[in-house]
């Protein structure tokens, strides 16, 4: 039996502190202090004016269920808008994502322009699209549909273009070797590969659309959001509460159905 | 040999594809009727977009240092900064609150009877849009202003951050946990030395991503009176001041792109780890390209 030399005293040296990591933490702390003071952060209202706020919050616990009968139509409009915008948006997005990937677009200028337009599309929030289209086509669900289409294109193109970047190159080479043009190549070598992911993104965007249509209605783009806006302006919190509960149930059901489908696709 | 080449496999039947296309077309038709939209107005859209777009561009082209345009630029930047502040504080509070919930919703950390109710709560939070938190709780209690907006964003962030964190925690490798446990660690020590180092990079990346999302999500809260760029835009759109709208939208686009690029670079650094100088130059070049 050979004696093992006691090595308890020898410990590996501590790693040196990482300046990169600490400067990031410091930046985050500074950012927190600066932004916190910019919005006058305080939790005092939670204790001071809680009673004033609770008067309103309490009304949310007494929903007027009868009001829901009048919300059937706007809710239907909201769902139809979400479906229509998802389908139109996805269709356009597929074409644009072919332009926004180096795999399918060899022309550097076209690719750059597609990417630039995409970044601008993505940096505007859904509400802003709502406001713009309300100005362009007037108040109503047409504005909401168009706003959602733009919002969807931004999201789907980004995700799909990244999926296209990562496709298996084998089928592409085969298509090239047999003399396919760009469109045929996309049709037989790219789209079959990305279809499951693309379908999953489409479902994801549909989920987002149902939520976003609430937001769009508030700026005048129709649907259930408009009902919420009107009831809020009238201080009818009991009606508002019933609508919110209904919305919660519908969004929850759609999310569950969509996730089940996406799991099956993935 | 030539006879073999002539034999082609029969193409797969087309009827399934046709059926799917028909169903999709029918759904579009039904919804197009159901949205109750005034489709005729679609024809006005290009002309209006061209006119208003022209007015917006004209606002942008004015000398930004001459009055009153210097004032317009400063106001837009000020409100955009407020949006960023709202998003940062909202994300931070959401992150702090969701962090323990993420562990409590991971089935490899706590028993099933804890996981189930916590997940239910996270799902409920995830289902409610931020704007509803704003309307129901934050604006009544905290009054109009960016603080209410930040807290609404915080409430909206808890659900998704908690769910994403719990998924990361469930996906860890068991090796380090076993190693820590075999050296005598218990309870929180296992979490601190076995789990946390594995999951922290991805969780922090989710926080940053949520920050990017919250900058956009804050806009609607502004429309309702919670401050930030949304409140400025809603005022400008009501007054139809297209030159100022042009300036405000330009500020939104540029600032959002810059924040996305910085946050994206930090996320990449956290996930992918350190890089050599050459790789770093490539990453900077590619993120700059993506921002363009």
Layout: helices, strands, pairs:
The complex is a heterodimer of chains A (266) and B (292).
Chain A: H1 19-38, H2 45-48, H3 50-59, H4 72-99, H5 108-123, H6 126-137, H7 141-165, H8 169-177, H9 182-218, H10 224-233, H11 237-265
Helix pairs in contact in A: 4-7, 4-9, 4-10, 5-7, 6-7, 6-9, 7-9, 8-9, 9-10, 9-11, 10-11
Chain B: H1 2-6, H2 15-34, H3 45-61, H4 69-104, H5 112-127, H6 130-142, H7 146-170, H8 174-182, H9 188-226, H10 229-239, H11 242-272, H12 277-291
Can you walk through the features of this model?
- The complex is a heterodimer of chains A (266) and B (292).
- Chain A has one domain: MetI-like (MetI-like fold, Orthogonal Bundle), CATH 1.10.3720.
- Chain A is built from eleven helices and no strands.
- Chain A has helices at residues 19-38, 45-48, 50-59, 72-99, 108-123, 126-137, 141-165, 169-177, 182-218, 224-233, 237-265.
- In chain A, helix 4 (72-99) packs across helix 10 (224-233) and helix 5 crosses helix 7.
- The longest helix of chain A is centred in the last third of the chain and has 37 residues, at 182-218.
- By secondary structure, chain B is mainly α.
- Chain B has one domain (64-291): MetI-like fold, CATH 1.10.3720.
- In chain B, helix 4 (69-104) packs across helix 10, helix 4 packs parallel to helix 11 (242-272) and helix 7 packs antiparallel against helix 9 (188-226).
- The model of chain B has no long low-confidence stretch (mean pLDDT 87).
- At the A-B interface, helix 1, helix 3, helix 4, helix 5 and helix 6 of A face helix 2, helix 3, helix 4, helix 5 and helix 6 of B.
| Straight-line distance between termini of chain B | 55 Å
Would you report the number of β strands of chain B? 0
What value does the Rg of chain A take, in angstroms? 26 Å
CATH superfamily of chain A: MetI-like
Quaternary class: heterodimer
By CATH reckoning, the class of chain A would read: Mainly Alpha
Share of residues in strands of chain B? under 5%
Shape of chain B: globular
Low-confidence stretches of chain A: none
Shape of chain A: globular
Count, helices of chain A: 11
Number of strands of chain A: 0
Which sequence of SSEs, written as H and E, runs from N to C of chain B?
HHHHHHHHHHHH
